[in-house]
Design goal:
heterodimer, A: Rossmann fold, 6-stranded mixed beta sheet, globular, B: about 325 residues, mainly alpha, ABC transporter involved in vitamin B12 uptake, BtuC, 13 helices
Chain lengths: ~525, ~325
């Protein structure tokens, strides 16, 4: 209690007008939030350049743009996580200053982040108590249970208040986040890329909930880079590019190609050409693979498959069904409990990663920053991470610097990496360019097997297009490709065969002519088809 | 024999109390994500301030209070370095220990060998202290031991059953999530570090004012480090800290017993006995760490990591 009163003393200097969207009468169709002339500059980057944005009560408003276009920065400013360098924010028509998330919450603005801001070691109720300024000081979680259940019912957000967050699925965690915002009195709700982690069913459920909330007078901002989401569920779409607003349109005024052009600034390929390729020998053979996950439970449970050269084998499934563990086991980063992994006829089960990669395996890891690059090293150093110890990169005593630099420059050019120089630390690059560096490193070795784990996750339209084109190029060259992705359209566009993974097993493997979106969706929920 | 055991247990509790107090404080600091390796230094400073104050004012309560206050102020140096300046917590903590030990060494030189003119009287709890064995072991102590009992319960309750406790745990697990939930991360960390300092100071003063009560060189003799090890053994839970603290207190009590004992006609060297608590510390750390790995209980996730709000994530 002492600490709490101390807190209020410390915060006294901030004069906050008593405005809250949760109590204000804002009619449907009137602005809840207006942002005017927002400028935010990060070292070296203008993230927001004189941006205007309006959110009305009763609308679902898509904020569409590529990665690095400034969508999330703009919303982080509205939520008080960043302070703008210039510009004004109005809530219900009154000018306000939002200095912290707490201010934002007080004004009735809520945010569901892309990476959930939940504490796994706390229960659902404790997490909600944490975010509510008026939660009781003693035994808060017990007091909140009833209210949580009431909100759950009203909006169709079912969740067990006494469960620990680490026990929940991703979809459930998202529901907790939304509950948190709603119970905190949010009337303007920002969702940052909410669908990337959801199953198609969970996604539909989410959209229904959002519509219900909008009908009750909330305003929803949906940050996304998926065109079809913006077109199908939103009332208005604001497109951003390079920190500026390109246009605000209604979905019936435009088609997908228009939006893509606004986002990228040029025409974009939305369909990929995939000519039949020559299918050759078996490159990767996996037999009865059993692998444990981080918690010591079986994550991959008896999976078998072959991939031949010139073939893309896709693995679909919601994250957390054993895909990551499967990939890690194949490249030797995770122990295989039983079963076999063979590459080009050689047994590599539980062999060191260096040996697996040495057989001509390219690995595009799921966590590109943590596993794909050494962030503080330069672009050129990252480009030779796999080959630095071999000639001609390395001489008898020292690195062959001239050759390395020459080679690095050539790759940067060939793979169109946008970087100030080959000596810039790779962490300063955007996600798309980091992925280009990884692909340049991996593909320049003419690999026989490519293991690509979520290769376009979080990338913008242009970078996604590039990565997919490169993968198809390698397929044409005769590489065998294992493609793990949650993006069904990507799998459909690139794969020759698709396996659907659920709880560590393959629910089924579809041949090219059997693949349809609907069949995969059903299987992703774990239902085997009666065939 | 029975009486002997009861007295040994009583000594165990008293010897364990300074370690318990310091551990409780460090648990709070670490729960909020701030590792403070300065416990030894803060205990030392508390010990010398408590001793000097009691010696001059003849008021042990004032001595102990002032010791807590000064140690808390010292810990704020650590909080400022780690929370506000985002400095390396290990380095800052070690510096704090050196600072505290150094100051207390200089200030304490004049007191070496001098006993305190006042003693803190024992206050047996009527009724409870008549229970055989337990009564003697737990309920015939000075008031500060009872204070430590109360602190254990209160700190446990606050941590697990109140909003403030949820905030503290949240800050230690994921400060950016706590921030997004509207928690004042820096304030919580400052508060927890200061509480840690106050309790370490209290533990140190207990040593010099109540437990010993005289000034000897190297008063705390590594108890601050043991307290830090105990935090891991306790898995950051105030209730579990009790067990560990009294275990170490028991080792100290045992030391005195074993000094008289003969093993096959030989006396065990005093120096070897004196090293028992430190050997036990290593054993406890090995045990606790493997236990934690097995049960997959980890330290607070953000422990030791400074929190930057406007960090751009690449």
């Amino acid at each position: 209690m002492k600490l709490l009163s101390l807190r209020s003393v410390l915060e006294k200097p901030m004069v906050i007008e008593e405005i809250s969207l949760s109590e204000m009468q804002v009619e449907l169709g009137e602005p809840l939030v207006q942002m005017r002339g927002i400028v935010k500059i990060f070292p070296g980057v203008v993230a927001n350049d004189n941006v205007d944005f309006d959110l009305y009560a009763g609308e679902v408003h898509a904020l569409l743009g590529e990665n690095g276009a400034g969508k999330t920065t703009l919303m982080n400013i509205l939520f008080g996580l960043y302070s703008p360098d210039e510009g004004e924010i109005y809530v219900a028509g009154k000018k306000v200053e939002i200095r912290s998330p707490r201010d934002a919450i007080r004004y009735g603005i809520g945010m569901v982040h892309q990476h959930f801001k939940l504490i796994p070691t706390l229960t659902v109720a404790e997490n909600i108590a944490l975010s509510l300024a008026n939660a009781p000081a003693i035994n808060p979680s017990k007091h909140l249970v009833e209210e949580i259940e009431r909100y759950s019912k009203r909006y169709g957000l079912e969740v067990d208040p006494s469960a620990y967050v680490w026990q929940l699925s991703v979809g459930e965690r998202q529901r907790v986040e939304i509950l948190k915002a709603l119970m905190g009195g949010a009337r303007a709700l920002i969702l940052d890329e909410p669908t990337t982690v959801l199953t198609p069913d969970e996604r539909d459920e989410l959209f229904k909930t959002l519509r219900r909330m909008a009908d009750e007078g909330c305003g929803i901002v949906l940050i996304t880079h998926k065109l079809e989401e913006a077109l199908s569920v939103c009332d208005r779409i604001t497109v951003m590019r390079n920190g500026r607003v390109v246009a605000t349109v209604r979905p019936n005024e435009v088609v997908a190609a228009d939006l893509a052009k606004m986002m990228v600034g040029r025409d974009v390929l939305l369909n990929y050409e995939k000519p039949p390729s020559e299918i050759g020998e078996v490159v990767l053979r996996v037999e009865g693979l059993r692998v444990l996950g981080d918690r010591g439970l079986v994550s991959v449970d008896g999976v078998s498959f072959d991939i031949r050269s010139g073939e893309v084998f896709g693995i679909a499934g919601v994250a957390g069904n054993g895909q990551s563990e499967l990939v890690e086991a194949i490249v030797g980063l995770r122990k295989v409990e039983s079963g076999r992994v063979e590459i080009l006829g050689r047994d590599v089960t539980n062999q060191p990663t260096s040996r697996v990669l040495g057989l001509g395996v390219a690995y595009i890891p799921e966590h590109r920053i943590e596993r794909g690059i050494a962030p503080d090293l330069s672009v050129v150093e990252n480009l030779i991470l796999k080959s630095y110890r071999n000639p001609p990169f390395s001489g008898r005593l020292a690195m062959n610097t001239d050759y390395v630099r020459e080679w690095g420059k050539r790759l940067v050019e060939e793979y169109e990496v946008v970087t100030p120089s080959i000596d810039a630390p790779v962490k300063l690059l955007s996600g798309g360019n980091i992925q280009r560096v990884i692909i340049a490193r991996e593909f320049s070795q003419e690999p026989k097997l490519i293991i690509a784990s979520h290769p376009t996750y979080g990338l913008d339209v242009a970078a996604t297009e590039y990565v997919r084109k490169k993968l198809l190029e390698q397929r044409r060259r005769g590489a065998a490709i294992l493609l793990v992705s949650e993006d069904l359209e990507e799998l459909l566009a690139l794969s020759d065969r698709i396996a659907v993974m659920y709880r560590g097993r393959f629910v089924g493997v579809l041949e090219a002519d059997e693949i349809t979106l609907d069949r995969i969706r059903v299987m992703m929920a774990g239902e085997e088809e009666a065939s | 024999m029975f009486e002997d055991v009861a007295i040994s247990l009583k000594i165990a509790v008293e010897a364990g109390t300074p370690i318990l107090l310091a551990s409780l404080g460090e648990i709070y600091a670490e729960r909020s994500g701030v590792l403070n390796l300065g416990v030894e230094g803060m205990m030392m400073l508390g010990a010398v301030v408590g001793f000097a104050t009691t010696l001059t004012t003849k008021n042990p309560i004032l001595g102990v209070l002032l010791a807590s206050l000064v140690a808390a102020l010292l810990s704020l140096v650590h909080a400022f370095a780690c929370v506000s300046l985002k400095a390396n917590q290990v380095v800052s903590g070690l510096a704090l220990t050196m600072l505290g030990v150094g100051i207390s060494g200089v200030l304490g030189r004049q007191f070496v060998g001098s006993p305190l003119p006042v003693r803190v009287a024992e206050a047996s709890i009527p009724g409870l202290s008549d229970i055989p064995l337990i009564g003697k072991a737990l309920f015939s102590h000075d008031p500060f031991v009872y204070l430590s009992y109360a602190l254990v319960v209160i700190l446990w309750f606050v941590l697990y059953k109140t909003k403030l406790g949820i905030e503290i745990r949240a800050v230690g697990e994921d400060p950016s999530a706590a921030d997004a939930a509207g928690v004042n991360v820096a304030l919580v960390q400052y508060g927890c570090v200061a509480l840690g300092g106050a309790l370490a100071g209290l533990g140190g003063a207990y040593l010099s004012v109540v437990y010993t009560p005289a000034w000897i060189e190297n008063m705390t003799a590594g108890r601050g480090w043991i307290a830090i090890a105990l935090v891991i053994f306790a898995m950051w839970d105030p209730l579990r800290a009790v067990i560990g603290a009294y275990l170490f207190g028991g080792l100290e009590a045992l030391q005195f017993r074993l000094q008289q004992a003969l093993f096959f006609g030989y006396r065990i060297p005093v120096t070897l006995l004196g090293s028992l608590p430190y050997i036990a510390t290593i054993a406890v750390l090995v045990f606790a760490s493997s236990e934690a790995v097995r049960k997959r209980i980890g330290a607070p996730s953000a422990l030791g990591k400074p929190y930057f709000r406007e960090e751009r994530v690449f």
